[in-house]
Design a protein that fits this description.
Blueprint: H1 4-10, H2 20-40, H3 47-57, H4 63-78, H5 85-113, H6 120-127, H7 148-169, H8 172-192, H9 201-206, H10 209-227, H11 236-252, H12 256-280, H13 289-296, H14 298-316, H15 327-358, E1 371-373, E2 376-378, H16 392-395
Antiparallel strand pairs: 1-2
Pfam family, one: Acyl_transf_3
Biased composition (Polar residues): 402-411
Region (Disordered): 360-411
Length: 411
């Protein structure tokens, strides 16, 4: 812990800036997950075509890793001291639960249509977002398969308000220790899984919420360092080059237990560099209007894409075999378009209105007296500071409220 005086010199407490580049990057992560599932579902029967998809998206499952790191980053970055735990939890429920309920119901309808057996206890676990805690094979992937990640997110949301005061008071050295130690802990999980029964090892390393929270806390520690102006990392161009090099090397030569760690670091560098570019007003390819819209619907896209693809493949009789010739790549593009349309509708008619109705409004920040602390001039909420992060004005606007909070939203 550190003293109040030290906090004043190291953390000027800037107002959360809009981070549209992170919204755009959310779409890239969602696209990686989509491509991975398109390959593993064998939508494309032609070996040469399928090889291209596999080469491009073989590590696409790590897109969920990106989401978890991003979630920790933006929730710490945007957290307000005046918000109660109840307000935070209510806002998070309002954000993700309506979409989850719609897809949960849709998945049950699909199961009824195909006369698939549904275990009531598994359905109950799924609707309550508890399934990630259940190691039984098939249970954590029950009903809408991808909702296991929401089960993890709910655990993160429960923990963050309890841990945030500790993060705010932590010494910078401790935060840097977390930045180094958390990727090493991710690496250590692979030998540690030998202590778990073999049937539960995938669940332990890929699903179990406390394990997946390591990525969340990695993003959270980086956000706290950036809030204080203490983050030191490459710029967006260099971070992107590092990520691409890591991706290619991991796909070609590196074993899974290593690439999960390396990609966690690479994702963190891209997230922090993109956020810094937004706050400083630097150029970023990820904040274009189309990419921001795609990022806004990426949560809905993620929730619908597997259910849509499996349902169509079963109806067409191509489940497990794929489409021959050019019909395979055409089907993948068709799925991409259909899922985007459905995601846009879900975002427009469920996610947005329910967020407005259910989420508490953000209270206006009260003005504070002008004061000076160690080279930092703070005047009310619109602080200008010399912490290397930039100002709210430079970032291009105020916080987003209600349904327009996606610029500082984890999903």
């Amino acid at each position: 812990m550190t003293s109040a005086a030290a906090v004043a010199t190291t953390r000027p407490a800037p107002a959360p800036a809009r981070l549209p580049s992170l919204t755009g990057l959310r779409w890239i992560a969602a696209l990686l997950v989509f491509g991975f599932h398109a390959g593993t579902m064998r939508i494309i029967a032609e070996p040469d075509y399928k090889a291209v998809v596999d080469a491009l998206f073989t590590l696409g499952l790590s897109g969920v890793q990106f989401f978890f790191i991003l979630s920790g980053f933006v929730l710490v970055w945007s957290a307000r001291a005046g918000d109660s735990r109840r307000t935070f939890w209510r806002r998070r429920v309002a954000k993700i639960y309506p979409n989850h309920l719609v897809l949960w119901g849709a998945a049950l309808l699909v199961a009824w249509w195909f006369a698939d057996p549904v275990v009531p206890a598994a359905a109950l676990e799924n609707v309550l977002l508890l399934q990630a805690w259940d190691p039984r094979p098939g249970w954590f992937y029950s009903i809408n398969t991808v909702s296991w990640s929401l089960s993890c997110e709910f655990f993160f949301y429960l923990c963050l308000p309890l841990a945030l005061p500790l993060l705010r008071r932590a010494r910078p050295k401790l935060l840097w220790v977390l930045i180094v130690a958390l990727p090493l802990l991710i690496l250590a999980l692979w030998p540690a899984q030998q202590l778990v029964p073999e049937v539960s090892r995938w669940w332990f390393t890929q699903i179990f919420p406390p394990v997946r929270s390591l990525e969340f806390w990695l993003g959270a520690a980086a956000a706290e360092l950036m809030r204080r102006g203490l983050w030191r990392g490459p710029g967006l161009t260099a971070a992107s080059v590092i990520f691409l090099g890591t991706w290619v090397a991991a796909a070609e030569w590196i074993r899974a237990e290593l690439w999960t760690t390396l990609l966690a670091v690479a994702y963190l560098l891209v997230i922090t560099a993109a956020a810094d570019a937004d706050v400083r007003g630097k150029r970023s390819p990820w904040r274009s209007r189309p990419l921001v819209w795609l990022g806004e619907v990426s949560f809905a896209f993620y929730l619908v894409h597997v259910l849509v693809m499996t349902s169509v493949l079963r109806l067409s009789g191509d489940w497990g075999t794929g489409f021959e010739g050019w019909r395979g790549p055409a089907a993948v593009l068709g799925f991409l378009l259909v899922n985007l349309i459905l995601a846009g509708l879900l975002h427009r008619f469920v996610e947005t209105p329910m967020m407005r109705r259910l989420a508490p409004r953000r209270r206006a920040r009260p003005p504070i007296p002008e004061q000076r602390t160690a080279g930092t001039q703070v005047t009310g909420d619109e602080a200008h500071h010399t912490d290397g992060v930039g100002t709210r004005a430079e970032a291009g606007g105020a916080d987003q409220a209600g349904s327009r909070s996606s610029y500082v939203d984890s999903r």
